[in-house]
Every structure is written in C-alpha cells, then in structure tokens.
Amino acid sequence: MNSENPIWALISTFGLMSLFAVGGAAAAVPEMHRIAVDVHHWMTEKQFADAYAIAQLSPGPNVLIVTLIGYAVAGIPGALAATLAMCLPTALLAYVSRLLSRPSQSRWPALIQTALVPLSIGLMAASALILAQSTARTFAALLLTAAVAALASVSRINPLWLLLAGGLIGFAGIV
User: Fold this and answer.
1) Lower CB density within 10 Å: C or N end of the chain?
2) What are the protein's UniProt keywords (predicted)?
C-alpha cells in the first residue's frame, strides 16, 4: 500500500466510483477489482473473490463488497469510510434531484433510463467475467463455472443451492 492515508484513499476511491456505478455496486465490481487488486494491492485475487462471495451470500444490499474491501484495508474505520463513500454521494444526488424535480410530461427521464439498461447489463457481464477469471484457475473449475452459469440462466433453481453445491465440491477437493 502506498504512503497516503488509507482512509482517505478509500473515501476518494469509492466516493468517485459511486458516481459512475450505473446499475449499482454490482456493476462497479470490475473497477473495484482493478483498484483493490491491481492498483493499490489492498487484496489478492483470491481475497477479492472470497470477499465478493461473502458479500453475495450475506443478507442485505450487494454493496457489502465495498465494506469488506474497506475492512481489509483499515479495519472497522475503513469499512465505515468505504461504505459511506460509496453510498452517500449517490444518495445525496438522488435526494436533491427529487427535491428539484417537478411533475412534467418530459420524455427525457424514460429515454435516459432506457439507454442505461444495456450499459448496466454490460457492466454486470464484465463483473461476472472478472470474477470468473479470478476464481476459475483449472479446467475443471472453468467447466463448473460455465455449467452453473448455464444452469442458473435456464432454470428456476435457487442460486443458493448452486452456491452450496459449489462450496461442497470445493470443500471436497474436487475442484
């Protein structure tokens, strides 16, 4: 880690990232990975993948990954700083825009929302790719990842069952 204050590094990183996280925190996972693993070296690939898995398994919003990154960097103060930096800027913008909005018949909000859908889907697909690259290191793991992704997309099986099965397969040492 560099010599700058880690709390301020977390605040500046996630504060800026929150403004560009179109589609929520899940869409910003590739950038979080780049910053936490490649730029600042706050975490290893495995630590990041583990933090993401814990964040997804935990109840609550998917922004928990930010909290776990902050905790890895600077403990509880880092967790609080990173979470607030990720949530406050966009929450304040949403609050101000709601105060300033007036009922109108403008088509712009609907057009902007429609235009952001493909962007959000692309960012989430990039998140999936980053996580698959950091976890699927063997051919068996890659095959399992592809099979689970295909099964999840075509069936109505609860993803928690798929995660449990993957965890058991990993625990058994098969993958």
Assistant:
1) N
2) Cell membrane, Membrane, Transmembrane, Transmembrane helix
Both tokens of 23, joined, read 């589609």
Q: Is this model's pTM higher than 0.70 or not? A: no
Structure tokens at 172: 């058994």
Helix-strand-coil split of the chain, %, nearest 5: 80, 0, 20
Classify residue 67 by burial, with Cβ atoms within 10 Å: 0-12, 13-18, 19+.
buried
Express each pLDDT in 93-113 by its tens digit.
888 777 666 666 667 767 777
* Tokens (6 digits) for 33: 């990975």
Query: Token pair of 175, please?
Result: 């993958």
Instruction: Give the span between the Cα atoms of 13 and 30, in whole angstroms.
Output: 13
Name the strand (E) or helix (H) holding 19: helix 6-20
How far is Cα 68 from Cα 108, in angstroms, rounded to an integer? Answer: 37
d(CA 121, CA 14): 21
145 near 135, Cβ under 8 Å? yes
